[in-house]
Amino acid sequence: MIKQLLSAAALTIFLVACDNTPGSEDSGEMVDASPVTEDANVPDPDVTTNTESEIAFVRKRFDRVQEMEAAGTLRCDTLSYNCDEESGGGSFTFCYVADDLVRASHEFYLGDHGGGSETYYFDEEDLYFAHLTQSSWRFASPPDQDDGTYTVDEVNEERRYFYNGNMIDRLYKDYQVESWKESPDPSTLPNTQTGTGVSAQVSGDQMLEIARSREFDCD
């Protein structure tokens, strides 16, 4: 078993910019950066259904984190790890407001031909949004050539909404990046209700545990 011990002495402060707005290309109106309070806009915690109010509540909390990042009030620690050549490696970035974890990201590569990222958003350790991306590449050529010197990336994304401990919605985005063409702008591509899906390398609960222990097991 290979175990990566992530020492607190090795922490570096790092701010991460992200473009993973829940469910749409428009992040919506920015809101006050104060904590979300119970009011008429907060869904009933005893009811979990895929309703507009619950999705709006997720976006409100997401936008609050984005606003705090823009204001420079997030403290982010980046922790790197390396496994064997087949397992790959990567890094975790944990962002806090005071001592409260509000965003945790994992960027990773899998061998030579794959990788991805997964970002989880928390409110007092309550997971409310996850953006997952995985990609793999292969050699290919445009139709009028056959020299195999080009590549095609297959990219799969998922956006998952959570409320009251349950996933209430998920959106998909699948696309190709062909090296002989201009790359598409992922933010302009539509989300869909069905898709390939992404298998998370690290779950939300595991991310919380890694944030606490500063320890990651490659196996």
How would you explain this protein's 3D organization?
With 219 residues, the protein is mainly β. The chain has one domain (3-217). It is 13% helix and 40% strand. It has 2 helices and 10 strands. The protein has helices at 52-70, 204-213, and strands at 3-5, 12-13, 75-82, 89-97, 100-110, 114-123, 126-140, 150-163, 166-178, 215-217. The protein has an 8-stranded antiparallel β-sheet, sandwiched between helices. The longest helix is centred in the N-terminal third of the chain and has 19 residues, at 52-70. It is globular. The termini are close together. The model is unreliable at 1-19 and 24-45 (pLDDT under 50).
Biggest sheet: strands side by side, in what order? 2-3-4-5-6-7-8-9
Report Rg.
Answer: 19 Å
The assembly state of the depicted protein chains is single chain
Shape: globular
Mean pLDDT: 80
Helix content, binned percent: 10-25%
Order of helices and strands: EEHEEEEEEEHE
E-strand count? 10
Structural class of the secondary elements? mainly beta
Instruction: List low-pLDDT spans.
Output: 1-19, 24-45
Distance between the termini: 6 Å
How many domains? Answer: 1
Biggest sheet details: 8 strands, antiparallel
Number of helices: 2
Report strand %: 35-45%
Biased composition (Polar residues): 185-204
Protein name: Lipoprotein
Region (Disordered): 25-48, 181-204
